[in-house]
Amino acid sequence: LSYGLYPVKMVVRGDHTSVDFSLAVVPPRTECVVFSIDGSFTASVSVTGRDPKVRAGAVDVVRHWQELGYLIVYITGRPDMQQQRVLAWLAQHNFPHGLVSFADGLSTDPLGHKAVYIKSLMQDHGVLIHAAYGSSKDISVYSSIGLRPNQIFIVGKVSKKHHQQSTVLMEGYAAHLASLMSHGGSRPAQGNARMVLVPRSGFGHSASIRRRRSAKRTISFPASSLPPNYTSEMKKPDRL
């Protein structure tokens, strides 16, 4: 496969249950921008409520980074059983396409899950994190992977001590976007990252909520984590 982001369906031959996920084929040192979904995008607490309002300018900021050539990575500590509803919410509000990471089942340490996933991208797949967005609870996650305060962008309420550990977007995403678009505010992705042919559209119909007889889940990970000579016909997993 050439560089890009591909939708993949793996079907169990016996009972026809299936697993849907996104397969990213990326060159070494691909630059990414990470967005934590909960709290940073929504004006309310949960993305699983009745159409929570999106923070003004959030979609435009994500699209700005995508148009500069960065691979967009969305992370959440929510279990993968909620993936259809969350992806549908992202699609409904026209968020740009990207990798989405969910916790594997119910997690007692959602922040730990986020840190492990991002560290895996960096250490196992050579991905470079250029910037990361979230709420105050995500500061410890981003600091633990070595990001500097000027790479960590936080929205919402933040304590005074966190002001020294991150860049707080006091005036919201709209003002932040204006800063990014000003001279020297942001740069195009460097190296081979521009070769990643990420779809310019949003999540589209693949993220809509539809009833299926088969059990489904969405997993996103880079191509190098697939086993050699993998096939769409596989043994039935212990749990779907």
Automatic annotation (TrEMBL):
Domain of life assignment: Eukaryota
Disordered: region residues: 214-240
SUPFAM superfamilies in UniProt: HAD-like (SSF56784)
Biased composition, class Polar residues, residue ranges: 221-232
Signal sequence annotation: none
Coiled-coil residue windows: none
Molecular-function annotations in GO: phosphatidylcholine binding; phosphatidylcholine transporter activity; phosphatidylinositol binding; phosphatidylinositol transfer activity
Domain LNS2/PITP intervals: 33-164
GO cellular component: cytoplasm
Name of the molecule in the record: LNS2/PITP domain-containing protein
